[in-house]
Amino acid sequence: MKLKTLTLIAALACCTVYAQDIEVKDAWVRATVPGQKATGAFMKITAKDGARLLYVSSSAAGVTELHEMKLQGDVMSMRAVVDGLDIPAGKTVELKPGGYHVMLMDLKVTLDKDRTLPLTLVFKDLKGAERKVELKVPVAAQSSATGTTPHQH
């Protein structure tokens, strides 16, 4: 009886992971040099049913914020995105240099090329439920990093 119950729980847990419907691809973090206290993280996010990226956190940074770079006239400006970032249903939103991105500030370590960095993305779906996507993101000198498979919780 206990084995059947455990099997049922495991099967339901497996289905829950697949029902998350949030995909994060091609995630990478820009490498830093000794003494550098900030860098950016970039990725492509798709939510089958739509969601809002509320915030991102990392144990390697004292402050982690969503930012947007925008050309206003002849001036490039960067500002924090305070209300989260919409991920429209079925559309891919790219966080990239020169656009939306994650700022990692007050870095606790130098981010050398070829190491990985933990990132936790927190989303809210259309029903108001929050979910986390935990990533191990490669550190790279540029966007040549390969895709990352998220662990969803």
Q: Can you put this structure into words, describing what you see?
A:
Mean pLDDT is 83; it is low at 1-19 and 144-153. The chain has 153 residues and is mainly β. Strands 1, 2, 3, 4, 5, 6, 7, 8, 9, 10 and 11 form an eleven-stranded mixed beta sheet that branches. The protein has one domain: Immunoglobulin-like (Sandwich), CATH 2.60.40. 11% of the residues lie in helices and 54% in strands. A hairpin with a 7-residue loop joins β1 (22-30) and β2.
How is this fold's topology laid out?
Layout (H helix, E strand, L loop, with lengths): L1 H17 L3 E9 L7 E10 L3 E7 L3 E12 L2 E6 L4 E3 L4 E4 L4 E8 L8 E10 L4 E11 L10 E2 L1
The parts where pLDDT drops under 50 for at least 5 residues are: 1-19, 144-153
User: How much is the radius of gyration in Å?
Assistant: 17 Å
User: What is the CATH T-level topology?
Assistant: Immunoglobulin-like
Q: Helix segment count? A: 1
Characterize the biggest β-sheet.
Answer: 11 strands, mixed
Distance, first to last CA: 27 Å
CATH uppermost class:
Mainly Beta
- Mean pLDDT across all amino acids: 83
Number of domain modules: 1
What's the CATH superfamily, by name? PCu(A)C copper chaperone
